[in-house]
Amino acid sequence: MKRRVVITACSAITPIGYDKDTIIENLRLGRSGVKPLRDDGLLTRHIHSRVFGTVDYPIEYGFKRHFTKTMGPVAYYACQVAKDVLKRSGLSQDFITSGRLGVAFGSTHGSPTVQREIYKTFFNDIDSKFSSIGAVDYLRSMVHTTAVNITRMFGITGRVIASSTACTTSSQSIGYGYEMVKYGMQDAMICGGADEYDTTTVAVFDNLLACSVNYNTTPHCTPRPFDTNRDGLVVGEGGGAVLLEEYDSAKKRGAVILGEIIGFACNNNGGDLILPNLDGITATLRLALKDAKITPSDVDFISAHATATKMGDVIEAQAIAAVYGGKPLVTGLKSYMGHTMGTCGVIELILTTYMMERGFIAPTLNLENVDERCSMLRHTRELTDTYTKIGAIQNFAFGGVNTCLLVKNAGEVH
Amino acid sequence: MTKVDIQDKILAILTEDFEFEKPGLDDNLRDDHGFDSIDAIELLGKIELTILGFSLTREEKEKAMGIRTINDIVAYIEDIKHSRSK
């Protein structure tokens, strides 16, 4: 059995906004969500990179303590976007709890904020707090905390997939959710990812010399995907969710269709866990096209992973050129909000569907002088009003994991 | 700390930290207020810190698993205090 899979609701909490209109406005006006790194009283003073893709606006969660007791900050993001998609979807309560709806959701670490409090107790030898380390802290910080807090809050009884593959966490969640519905294992899946404000991740990339350090006093000028003067990635935070449904049942119940997932691929480089790999990435892009049964010329837009690291952008540009040539527009959406880690895939998919719906493609911010090794691509240098039929969302992660999602414009879903 | 003091303290904890609305001393904690096993562990931690002032043994904690009402909690604390004072 192979079924078509459509997106019928979405929500994203991003450094450039939460509601759809704000995000679109910031994309159209080229506003960055990268801000100064906040002092965490622990690691900040040791970190060279002083920028972060920050969610600095208030969010009214309204969750009851009955639910929040097992939630760290990352689960707040996850449950909020899941709440939004369920509300917007119009799915009945009977269906939500029927076992035919599953969850594919993940984060990079669980909750680093909660883990940090546990470490403080250990390292400071605080006996009086020892008894507070228990089931609740584990439930808040375990790696599948986002997925199961969503199932708990909404009474979802279907399958649970909790990807935790760093930067491909949410793109993999969407891909596996798509396959669950496509092959009839579930009729719908809530898919996505979240990651909270975390300086530990910044410290890791900082130590790997992969973080941006030259724009600490002008945060909006970094990251700079494909630019000659790029100097590394900027870590960010956020959450995002999409509801994937089987096409016929979505159409039958009158759901609003936001796009169709027509292809997905995921592979591994089979070797180095850090360095980007041209063969592995190129293979992923081709496998996704094969899964969708389309040719490279069918794709109009590529949301590149484009973290703005020295080598990553060049390898990705070579892979895009090898598969697509110079036809599709290419944008690095991380230029607006930094690298939201486990969330980036779902946010970039949602932003792509927003742009498809509104008929424009946002340019890569801070792309002033294209690195000549990346110049063979058709970079989006300015706001471009255009109709996009099919977009590709590319993500690559530590561990050598590569993903590619192919999404069709809702206007093309018949 | 008298029985009434313990009772008041427990009611305050349940209202402020566990968001109980109008708790009654004989209410069923689970059925009437959604109190679950995670809450039970958290409440024991608060009892240790704010009422008893010492850590409960594993055996003492296991005895708490039979608690169903607020009156049961108060009786449990009194029993622990009494046992430890011997």
Structure write-up:
- The complex is a heterodimer of chains A (414) and B (86).
- By secondary structure, chain A is an alpha/beta fold.
- Chain A has a single domain (5-409), classed as Thiolase/Chalcone synthase (Peroxisomal Thiolase, Chain A, domain 1, 3-Layer(aba) Sandwich), CATH 3.40.47.
- Chain A is built from 14 helices and 15 strands.
- Chain A has helices at residues 20-29, 65-68, 73-89, 93-96, 112-123, 135-141, 145-154, 169-182, 199-207, 247-252, 278-292, 310-324, 334-337, 344-358; strands spanning 5-13, 34-36, 51-53, 101-106, 160-161, 188-195, 238-246, 259-268, 301-303, 329-331, 360-361, 378-379, 384-385, 390-397, 401-409.
- In chain A, the strands form 3 sheets. Chain A has an 11-stranded mixed sheet, sandwiched between helices. In chain A, strands 2-3 form a two-stranded antiparallel ribbon. Chain A has a two-stranded antiparallel ribbon with strand order 11-13.
- In chain A, helix 3 (73-89) crosses helix 7, helix 8 (169-182) packs across helix 14 and helix 11 (278-292) packs across helix 12.
- The model of chain A has no long low-confidence stretch (mean pLDDT 95).
- Chain B has helices at residues 3-16, 29-33, 37-52, 58-63, 70-85.
- Chain B has one domain: Non-ribosomal Peptide Synthetase Peptidyl Carrier Protein, Chain A (Orthogonal Bundle).
- Chain B is 66% helix and 0% strand.
- The radius of gyration of chain B is 12 Å and the shape is globular.
- In chain B, helix 1 (3-16) crosses helix 3 and helix 1 packs across helix 5 (70-85).
- The two termini of chain B are 17 Å apart.
- Chain B contains 5 helices and no strands.
- The mean pLDDT of chain B is 92.
- With 86 residues, chain B is an all-alpha fold.
- Classes of the chains: A alpha/beta (414), B mainly alpha (86).
- The interface between A and B is medium-sized, with 13 and 13 residues.
